[in-house]
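request received
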Amino acid sequence: MGKARLEAFSDGVLAIIITIMVLELKVPHGSDWPALQPLLPVFLSYVLSFIYIGIYWSNHHHMLHTMKRVNGSILWANLHLLFWLSLVPFVTGWMGENHFAALPTALYGVVLFMAAAAYFVLQYCIISANGGKESLLAKAVERDRKGKVSQLLYAIAIPVAFWEQWLADALYVLVAIIWLIPDRRIERMIEE
Amino acid sequence: MGKARLEAFSDGVLAIIITIMVLELKVPHGSDWPALQPLLPVFLSYVLSFIYIGIYWSNHHHMLHTMKRVNGSILWANLHLLFWLSLVPFVTGWMGENHFAALPTALYGVVLFMAAAAYFVLQYCIISANGGKESLLAKAVERDRKGKVSQLLYAIAIPVAFWEQWLADALYVLVAIIWLIPDRRIERMIEE
Amino acid sequence: MGKARLEAFSDGVLAIIITIMVLELKVPHGSDWPALQPLLPVFLSYVLSFIYIGIYWSNHHHMLHTMKRVNGSILWANLHLLFWLSLVPFVTGWMGENHFAALPTALYGVVLFMAAAAYFVLQYCIISANGGKESLLAKAVERDRKGKVSQLLYAIAIPVAFWEQWLADALYVLVAIIWLIPDRRIERMIEE
Amino acid sequence: MGKARLEAFSDGVLAIIITIMVLELKVPHGSDWPALQPLLPVFLSYVLSFIYIGIYWSNHHHMLHTMKRVNGSILWANLHLLFWLSLVPFVTGWMGENHFAALPTALYGVVLFMAAAAYFVLQYCIISANGGKESLLAKAVERDRKGKVSQLLYAIAIPVAFWEQWLADALYVLVAIIWLIPDRRIERMIEE
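response:
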């Protein structure tokens, strides 16, 4: 019931978030290299956030694939996740424009941390409504090392940003790399 | 006939509305706390409007779920609802930038009032075209206390905004809370 | 083949066009009535264009409903229509900001004229690929008085804008009203 | 598995990219011809990029049509393509605002080149996961003269832009024309 529409709405919001970020790459007035140079950190933060939203879209895609039943809690847990992700363009632009300064870098981590937490809540709601601990999804994510490590790394990166900002940025890149190694857990479960 | 496309178009517009609002959160030039502080009221108004659009999406989702027949009136009643909701980013931004001043707060209420009225018109059109008073939807929303209370609270909040603006804002928050308690009416009817 | 995706892409573009227009309603800095007043013509032009895009979406919806076969010509005729409609936010904003001055009003007419012409081309391509003159759609739009009258009125409005701009604006409103009276031709044909 | 959602997300992103570009056509303050004139190069670059995104959408549409199996590599190859296409609005705006100056023209070519390369990678991933060299798609694109010629012309245009910028622009227009002649390869294969 209504799964198609939940996916369509999420796809719409994620597609807009991922595309709207490029608007922070403001067209410069000059037409030479020096005009382009200040955009480099904005571009790098765009690449990082594009990958993060891509990871969320891909995992969201896999998670909803196993779902059979939709209820009110799932609708709102999903909106809650989209809320935190909708803040990504703002923190991306802020971090990029300020050359990865301490506070913007920390806030970027806070938004990523909250989005990851919202993802867990959504996962919990879907499992509850779709067979509980015996469900396909529950088994697939039982250990969920990647998710736990990501949460931990975000939590470390936030205070670290005020001490050594580049280390925090490196942690965000690390988490992205961890996830880019594709998550075959659910795929494998289905095949078995 | 055409129900899927009506849903897809509505989902698209609602996804854009909910995401475009975040563009009002303009990236500040500084990178410290004082630079972030003026954004607080804009952020709060964003959260409130995000929840409102989420509520509309969720209710719209449930209402269209029961619908079997689409006609011209439903298409236009739906566009009418989307028109008022498309003004939400504007009034949200105006209210946020002016720290919930009297006139923006009142105008926010006017847009919410008109959107709620447009929702009732859409509901009426769907019931008319899908079995009338004996239909599933008609029975599910027969009493519709939430809808009536919301309309009343908006109508109260609009003049109150000019007298005590924070009271009006509190009323908007109250309506959002009323709706966040999930509307199980239609879900229950279907199960029965 | 591929009809669903053609609809989805068109819905996406139309949803964005209709929503992006509201961004021309720039949040004013003051919070009183005088701050709101200069937005009135922008708002009026927004309402007019919202209705026009709504009409196109609704007619497009009906036209594609009868379609069975998609080919390359239809894809490109559809993109051509979307191109002209994508210019609507620009001419709407220009017309609104200049209080319906002569040249913006005329250009608004040019874009509407070209969009209407593109719609005819799309209609022709769909009829060609779906049974020709004997097809359901061909019969439904055989006379197409509304379409021809609209084209004529746009063609009149463009030069008239330089002479008496309000008359041209009145013609645009008139065309919108003509179409708002719902087009039951195709609906009726299907029922018969 | 999941093909519908991959298409929906891609359609969403492409629809937003194609529509967001029009935002670079900033509403001018005057209401006469001289106010409109500086927008001409921006408009021309918009037309060119609209056609390019249309070509990508159309080819993407045909390519995914033959696809039966989706896996993680396809998801990411698709996101990689969307990443490069998401930069099109930026380079379009930069090229338009600077009247097709050398560096923006060259960068436009770089983005087109990378998007074309990403398209090939996606094609390769789809073929690998859907039957390999014996698959319908593999046979349809076996020679792929258009694709190879485009890549070559982009590679030529990039250095040429620094020497004779108009020649580079002419090459971009030429590639667009090559592709506008519809690609019936896949269509023909399916019919056979």
